[in-house]
């Protein structure tokens, strides 16, 4: 039961963080937004290292760095997709892919075999996640483009691989691996932001994740005339949203790492992969994104999976 509580807690924080981060990515460049997100998350995790007992080892640091390399690619692709993709459709697709990778790794690479009820819970959770991602047909229905879908799949695979790397860390390493995970990503993102200021090639690459021209790739608003004040207000709002997303992400990372230490990789990954529940509900309430009937079935299936995996 502790693993269920920890994994679901990480799921809740990740879901809200994705929603808030998606809003921020629509108001500022994806690379700059993700860098702010990571910076705040790093502060949270460094503070957690002081509180949570841990043993420093090469294995813990190595797994964290490997996880960070995968995760930064995943988050850039994810937030880049959320800029134009409907949150209530895209987030479940990413989550289902992200959960499937650790399940395969747990069974194929680690040789773990869930109980029959555990298998049912995993299948119901993955199925529910996919149902959450099915749009309603007809006029006014939400749609995603092939580009957004491709970014979402890249995000799911790389974020799932990141979770596998974190699970490889020693059990006594506490939150050290996920701290190095975030610090690795932050180092990469800061490097991109700095290089984008002096290299047109890097600037074009970073800007490829954005779909609006109101900002350049490193976060400078296109301020002209009477729009200067409004641009600055939007930038402050975007920075605040990115910081809040980073805070939520940091807390979610703490719960995820603790859950991986005490539970099965497959179970933790699947339960954590239910984070679209929070994203979908917030998108419905705040953005007015309509839920199809099949998505409601997905919500029910996800809740049922929580019960089944709790009993496994």
Which key features would you list for this structure?
single chain, 312 residues, mainly alpha
Short description:
With 312 residues, this protein is mainly α. The chain has 12 helices and no strands.
Low-confidence stretches: 221-226
Give the helix/strand class.
mainly alpha
Our Rg estimate from Cα atoms comes to 19 Å
- The first-to-last residue Cα distance is 9 Å
- Quickly count the helices: 12
How helical, in percent, are the residues? over 70%
- Taken from the alpha-carbon principal axes, the silhouette is globular
| Total beta strand runs | 0
Biggest sheet, open or closed, and with what strands and sense?
none
Number of domains: 1
- The average pLDDT is 80
Helix and strand string, N-terminal first? HHHHHHHHHHHH
Beta strand % = under 5%
